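TL;DR need structure tokens for one chain.
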Amino acid sequence: MPDAVPIDLTPWFDGDEDARDQVAARVDEACRTVGFLAVTGHRIDPDLVDEMLAVTTAFFDLPMEKKLAVRTDDLVGNRGYAPPESEALSYSLGIDTPPDLFEAFNAGPATPPAEASDDVVARFFASNIWPDEPAGLQSVWERWWHACADLGNVLTDVFARALGLPNGWFRPMLSEQPSVIRANNYERRAGAPTPLPDQMRMGAHSDYGSLTILLADRVPGLQIRSDEGVWHDIVPPDNGLLVNLGDLLAEWTNDRWRSTVHRVVPPPPGDGAARRRSIAWFQQPNEDAVIEVLDVCISDDEPAKYPPTTAGGHLLAKLMGPRTRSTVDVDERFLDQPGLD
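>> reply
TL;DR here they are.
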């Protein structure tokens, strides 16, 4: 499996229709073969990138008691602080492993849709839990959420063209998206015990929604798994972002496009703190969007593999395994594959 496929979006923004076709064709190839894109020319303000990294780092540098003040027991709401070893992402693949070593902070849209029921709000649009410090964190995070939502909309326009769908085909299903930012901090602190056997900074998993936009340090740790079970190191591009596909889009495309299993491995002993920061924005279509295998991805030789579902139901089933360390229904394409023992 190659590295993340370089995708420069500049011709999509500035080029003619032929240039857009070329970008779409390259994206189609990347989504078929790797499922990870190294995206440049994305038009997110570099100053906002710097602000997002700075304010998020300042939060993770706070004393633990201040971070725990924005923790919640609401596992479904997916908000606030998650301390180290509170989750085990490999449970989403049915793999029993020690808890993961990352700490995280989560936030979603600032306001729920006006017509959303109390149950929908509780499950998908829970109130964000903002810390008192560092100053300005809420404002920067809300700006980042909207910048990623704008880029996510553009990416789905590229996807529509790559799949031969009408222009903007995905956008109506993103009008009330409950997409979430999750910032992860990986850091070996002084006095920390040696990781247990098979303990990861973040366990092997695939992402759950339609796509993920990842801002991360260009340091080792993130790995993607090939079909042969070989793990390959991957780093973000210079001045760019990683974008990968989630399970929902793989099912939507009848596995024409792939949701690639990935993990974050601990650094070798003696590497000091080996800090790695990553900020993921998970695009999740409207909770009531009906997800059916696309007609353009069905043929006599390739009938639909997946029954219709809703974006919200799919997400909740995926989320709860890692957080309760319980069994989940695992997509068949992940079962009995090498490298996941």
